[in-house]
C-alpha cells in the first residue's frame, strides 16, 4: 500500500501528516510507530491524520511515537490549518478544527498565499486535579511539593487537552531530562501519564523551557507544553496575565497569552517536504 504524506513542523516539533478526507487508515497506532522511526521510517514526533468532520473544517487525530493517541497538539493543529488553507480545503480567515479535546478556533496569518504562522485558541486551562488528572487533593495543584524518583520537586499542574506538570528551575540546559523525564511521565501521581515541563524565567514575560512528552520523549517543542508553562508562570506570579509571554524552546519560540477565558498560542508552521511511502 502506498501512502502520500506531508512532513511539517511547528517550532521544530515535526509530524507526518496524511490527508484522510478520502482515505481510511485502519491501524493508525502501528502506522505511527512505523513512520515516526527516524532511521527506518519517515521520521517525526508522531503521525497526524487530517479527516473530514460533519461540524468543522476538519478533524485532527494525533498519535505519538509509541502509538498512543494524544488529546491535543498545539504545534500539529497549526500545521493542519496550514494544510487546509494552502490545499484549498478551507481558505478562510478563521478555521475550526475538531480534536479529541474539543473544537479549536484558529487564525492563520498569510503571506503570498502561504500560511506562515497561526494563532490557536487553546481553550481555558484546566486546574482541577481530577480533570488533569493528577492524584493530589485540593481544588488545584499550584506550587505543590512532591517526590518523584526519590527527589523533591515543586510542581504546578494544568491540562490543555493533555496533562502537564510544570517545574520551575534555574538552569534547564544542565538538566538531565532523559533521566528525569521518564520518572515524571510514569509516576503513580499521574494516572494517565504526564507531560513534564522544566522552565526558567529569563526575562520579563520570557521563559525558557524543555519538555518531556508522554509517548514521545524530549521534543524540540510542545505547543500545549508551552501553554502549560505560561499558565503556570501566571498562576505563580512569575508572568503577567493577558500579556504576551515568549516561551523559548530548543526548536524555536512560541508566543502564549493567558486570559481568564482562554489560552492563546501563536507560532510558525512549516512544510518540510511531501512524499510517498510504501507500507
How is this fold's topology laid out?
Elements: E1 2-10, E2 13-19, H1 28-36, E3 46-51, E4 58-64, E5 69-70, H2 74-86, E6 95-99, E7 102-111, E8 114-121, E9 144-148, E10 151-159, E11 163-168, H3 177-185, E12 195-203, E13 206-213, E14 217-219, H4 223-235, E15 244-249, E16 252-258, E17 263-268, E18 270-278
Parallel strand pairs: 2-3, 4-6, 11-12, 13-15
Antiparallel strand pairs: 1-2, 1-18, 3-4, 4-5, 6-7, 7-8, 8-17, 9-10, 10-11, 12-13, 13-14, 15-16, 16-17
Explain the overall architecture.
It is a single chain. The radius of gyration is 18 Å and the shape is globular. 16% of the residues lie in helices and 44% in strands. With 279 residues, it is an alpha+beta fold. It contains four helices and 18 strands. Strand 1 (2-10) and strand 2 form a beta hairpin. The longest helix is centred in the N-terminal third of the chain and has 13 residues, at 74-86.
